[in-house]
Amino acid sequence: MPFSLTKKTSQQPTRPPGPQGLNRPASMLSFQRAPLRFLTNLTRQYGDIAQFPLLTQPVYFLNHPDHLRYILQEHHYNYDRNMPLVSLVRLIVGNGLSTNTDQESWLRQRRLIQPAFHKQSIAAFGSLLCTETLAILERWEEQAKSGQPVNIAHEMEEVTLHIVSKAMFHRDFTRQSQLFIRSFQLAHQILGEHLRFPFPPLSLPTPRHRQFRAAIQQMDEMVYDIIRQHRQQHHHDHDLLSMLLSAVDEETGKGMSDQQIHDEVITFLAAGSETTACTLTWMWYLLSQHPTVEQRLLAELNETLAGAPPTVDDLPRLPYARMIIDETLRLYPPIWLLMRNTVQDDRIGTYDVPAKTLILFSPYILHRHPDFWEEPEHFDPERFTPERLAKLPRGSYIPFGHGPHLCIGQGFALQEMVLMLALIAQRYRLILAPDHRVEPLPLISLHIRHGLPMHLHPR
Ligand code: HEM
After folding, report:
1. Domains of the chain, each with CATH number or no CATH
2. Distant-in-sequence, close-in-space partners of 168: CB < 8 Å, separation ≥ 6
3. Among protein residues, the one whose CA lies closest to atom 6 of ligand 1
């Protein structure tokens, strides 16, 4: 639907369409029970901008690239992340890049950290992630012989968390890392449970909530300890932590405090493991259902690598592997729901947006918008050839977000996912266990309900 972003002219506030009367409380329940179905139906019924109630508050749901460019880029200063949900996430990650709601200090941090994620910096992690992936391939040998299926969702979670923690603290801390990973997974799981059903409040010391606090304390102590050791021993390891420790603000000449570094470290672990794990899991599922895509991938791998393990230098010669990842991120973007808080009254299209309105948008729904994607449910990596990509309207494909808050780990994640796809596909064919029903489970990230049992067939 064409529209224009215009300044307010009428005195009468105009609100987007949405469920009315008795349908309003029902819509809130449907959103909580089956959000993907609810949002799909909402856009089908009411179009690219709609509203529905959430607890006491009306929520606007946006589903047009123009709207999204408006709030994420052109007028981003009027749409911040000052929301109760962010305060909950802050319990684990502190005030890192993804939860810092103060524009000025966020920008300072982003500038300080950006160099650690430059192409040349992350290329150095290529061999690390190949070593970690080869380690799981060795572990799989026994399982492949046994003929028992492997839960690929679980395997991808383990390996991606290992990769990002190794990239963070290069030095070997195998014993601590197991403990750290367990605490991290527990805290993350309890927060996920709480977000789905936020009662009783986390401040109430139930046994589960005490476990939550203990896990956070354990992680905090370990991260502060590692920071202290790095500072004392003047390590110059090539890891993200060393880069954060040596980052200096050009204007003030100051580095980051231990607390800032701690918050960023936990933020990267949280933001950088589950997202890639979920994408890879969906990718193995999609590949198992599309043998012609798999054949094309194998042809590319054979031609480019001739059986040798891939390196970062091979990435430009693996375009089809990258297109498979891009198409997976279209159909199953791990960050399936994003949100912003409206700072001051505004107007989007022909609708008024009062201050404090919660704005929701979903890459999962947007990436199926029939105006921009032909046969949106069909898995087709060919959509991402450079020619077709050039024709896509900006803001219609946003798995990594858009505008100033664009994912800082995008390059890291893409490098990791393409190399892992190449390494694993060279060795194994993954076949879905018969009768296993695959359906999305939208938690903080987009998981597969009941995991993904697959049989490993050596090539
Ligand atoms: C498939 C992998 C990934 C996906 C799909 C993804 C997606 C996203 C999205 C959609 C945002 C924007 C959030 C918003 O606008 O509110 C974001 C932000 C962010 N991501 Fe990622 N991410 C991925 C991997 C990573 C990795 C590997 C890291 C770090 C190691 C990371 C760190 C961050 C951080 C720190 C932010 C906040 C940026 C800011 O506000 O300045 N992400 N990510």
Report:
1. 1-89+336-366 (3.30.43.20)
2. 239, 240, 241, 265, 268, 269
3. 400
**pTM of the predicted protein model:** 0.94
Structure tokens belonging to residue 10: 């009428």
Mutate to test the pocket of ligand 1, among 73, 99, 329, 407 (most ligand atoms within 8 A of CB): 407
Please report which residue ranges of 173-257 form alpha helices under DSSP H: 174-196, 207-233, 240-246
Tens of pLDDT along the chain (459 residues) come to 444 454 545 567 899 999 987 777 888 888 888 999 999 999 999 999 999 988 778 899 999 999 999 999 999 999 999 998 898 889 888 999 999 999 999 999 999 999 999 998 899 899 989 999 999 999 999 999 999 999 999 999 989 988 988 888 876 555 677 788 788 888 988 887 787 677 888 889 999 999 999 999 998 998 898 888 888 876 666 788 988 998 888 888 888 999 999 999 999 988 888 999 999 999 999 999 999 999 999 999 999 999 999 999 999 999 999 999 999 999 999 999 999 999 999 999 999 999 999 999 999 999 999 999 999 999 999 999 999 999 999 999 999 999 999 999 999 999 999 999 999 999 999 999 999 999 999 988 999 999 999 999 999
State the DSSP H helix or E strand holding residue 50, giving kind and residue range, or none if neither.
strand 49-54
Q: Which residues' Cβ are closer than 6 Å to ligand 1?
A: 97-98, 110, 164, 267-268, 271-272, 275-276, 279, 333-335, 338, 399-401, 405, 407-409, 412-413
